[in-house]
């Protein structure tokens, strides 16, 4: 690969086949079709929690930072989600004092973080607001020079890739991502009756254009 000019990052690469891999602090396990917080991330979050309990008084910014960590953990552990709501109701304007009542809400998190309960992949669909069966799926991506798309329909799959036409090449990345989505949709064969089409993209602006038929804070993409 190096002779072709492709320099992989070995530090970030998984060179042997595995059914369990860590990504952004989350362990994805295909043998159980579930996800859970990594041990390192769990230890990091527990440290922040203990520091908050020891200090007894936090700035609003530090409180928001702690809630952000617990919210991320809750996305990987359904059991933690219900514990998050009472904490989100606490909204200090400047500082917050860890009262007896607040301490009673925070302390159980240490044990839940230590256990790192898992969450089935199937629950992620409801977390993302997805409903119904994944009958037809299109996953797309775009770079500065080209695009790629994969179509999944049952056990069948197709892939396609290419370079952008000149008018798209000079456009911004949102237009390029939308072009990739359009090319992916064109691969979908004609359906008898209605079918659910789910598109996966890593560009939030393109997602907004598809779901809302345009952005709410920007002018037309051209």
TrEMBL record:
It comes from Carpediemonas membranifera. This is Reverse transcriptase RNase H-like domain-containing protein. It comes from the Eukaryota.
């Amino acid at each position: 690969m190096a002779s072709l000019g492709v320099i992989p990052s070995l530090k970030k690469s998984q060179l042997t086949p595995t059914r369990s891999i860590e990504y952004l602090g989350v362990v994805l396990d295909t043998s159980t079709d579930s996800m859970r917080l990594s041990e390192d991330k769990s230890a990091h979050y527990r440290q922040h929690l203990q520091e908050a309990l020891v200090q007894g008084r936090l700035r609003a910014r530090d409180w928001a930072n702690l809630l952000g960590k617990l919210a991320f953990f809750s996305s990987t552990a359904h059991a933690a989600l219900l514990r998050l709501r009472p904490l989100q109701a606490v909204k200090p304007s400047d500082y917050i004092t860890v009262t007896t009542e607040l301490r009673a809400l925070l302390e159980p998190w240490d044990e839940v973080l230590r256990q790192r309960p898992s969450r089935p992949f199937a629950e992620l669909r409801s977390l993302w607001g997805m409903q119904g069966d994944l009958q037809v799926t299109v996953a797309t991506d775009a770079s500065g020079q080209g695009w790629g798309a994969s179509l999944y329909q049952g056990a069948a799959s197709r892939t396609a890739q290419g370079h952008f036409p000149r008018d798209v090449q000079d456009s911004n990345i949102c237009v390029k991502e939308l072009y990739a989505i359009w090319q992916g949709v064109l691969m979908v064969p004609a359906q008898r009756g209605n079918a659910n089409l789910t598109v996966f993209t890593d560009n939030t602006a393109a997602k907004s254009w598809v779901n809302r038929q345009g952005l709410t804070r920007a002018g037309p993409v051209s």
